[in-house]
Design a protein that fits this description.
With 143 residues, the protein is mainly alpha-helical. It is 57% helix and 0% strand. It has eight helices and no strands. The protein has helices at residues 4-7, 13-17, 32-42, 45-57, 59-67, 79-100, 117-126, 130-136.
Amino acid sequence: MAKASDCKSCPIREQCKGKKASEKRLHHTYYKAQYERMVKRLSSRFGKRMMRIRSATVEPVLGSLINYYGLRQINTRSREAAAKVMYVAAMAYNLKKYLRFTPIEQSGMVIALPVPDQFYYILIYFCNSHCDYISSNPKFKPK
């Protein structure tokens, strides 16, 4: 970042920082190559698909935990303790989701009709194990 006093005597000051800005900031860091690689990966077709999946699955849960469950910060000292806090929060989220769940009731009734006797003979004829079934049940012996 350049100070305003450094830019006073510069001949290209308006082209560099503009007319209204008081200072010039350069946004180059040591990790610029990794940042550009990440931007390239996220702008690809696969990256856009993965961002859509994440925004539909993970982000709403994290938003709910932060806004409604008070997890703006975790007041523990170790990773293991922080993981325990997250497990309990996940259980609370899932339990609340489970308690709101109401199963959809069927709109119609299903009536089981008796199967006609001819169907039994056809079923036994085409079944691979019909010999054992016929010998054990005298009702299904062919006439």
